[in-house]
Amino acid sequence: MKKIFFTLLFLFTITIFSYAQKAFVNQIINSVNIDSLMLTVKQLSGDTNIILNNQIDSITSRYADSPDVKKATAFIGQKFKSFGLTPVEQSYLNYKGYSGKNIYAYQQGTDKSNNCYIICAHYDNLPLGARNYGSDDNGSGVAAVLEAARLLSKHSLPFSIYYILFDHEELGLIGSDYWAGTHLNGDTPVLGTINIDMIAYDGNNDSVANIHISNVQQLGKNISDKLIDTDSIYNIGINLKVYTDAGPLSSDHASFWQYFMPAVLFIEDDKTGDFNPKYHTVYDRINLFNTSYYHRMAKLAIGTLAGFVSDSSHVGIKDISTQENNLVLYPNPVNNSFTIDHISGKKVLVKLISTNGEIVFEKVVITENEKLMIQLPPHFPNGLYHVLLINKESVLHKSFLKE
Ligand SMILES: [Zn+2]
Fold it and tell me: What's this model's pTM, rounded to 2 decimal places?
């Protein structure tokens, strides 16, 4: 009897621990404001005027390459500035035949590892023409990213955040492809990306939304799990379905997957017939919004991000499924450097991850004769590490002890 009681108490404690709401996340979710979201959507789609360079103006099209899309870029920059963030315009010139601008803001985390999370959406739209709206596709996503920035920028958080709005999504995921390619060489490892593309249409009021993860290494599963937890722990009321995609890939998350960065597409029900029937037409307007659904979708995306970036106990290594393989790593234990044999592929992204999930080293290297020699940085702390070798085909995993 005593033993049974003890077991029950233990289970109960575990349950409380895993399902407790966190005050910070709760506060952020409760601060997501539908009026703020709707105003931004109206401003982006020209339903409401904006002030740009001290003049009344209006965004009448966000078709990539249209003159007005530049107003949208400037308007988004202005929003970031109003939150105290520094907008960065990332221009690409004749990249895969396109020239355009991503716009983003980076919020530095307090954790020195520089691990980051991304919340992103594309801001260009369809159809081609001098007057279009793109209210759901993807005014709804852009407004959610800006709402995340408005709320989270007020806080000092362990993890860094990129708030990114991509250009040229509709013409082939161009902006995100460029961003992901340039980021690969950066020093801020991406632990998760929430790509938001169309979150305001729910014609049959069933509150269904979809999460798309990758069939390769289940990239994005860590984010998918967190979205599901956040929905249930904070009673947001979205009915989530998870799809594992092999392709074709319809939004910017695919640009992250190609470099094995974990990402999901978070979207209204694009699978079972309750998808915005007017998307990519001039009738994609706010009259089709289900505002209660939109509000809850934004709460869920932003609340999930808030959970990730405020939780330094989060274990990164769990995010990446790894496979056993015939890699040989020597010497082990490691002193200052080590060699790995039997690597396929010439260009490999090497990540060293500590046992508590912190990415402590990241570098793109060119291999020679299927061999790779890694010199550890000076004063590299002793301990057990995981080394991940990431290329276009696979993620390979090996552990070593640094002594
Ligand atoms: Zn879209």
Answer: 0.77
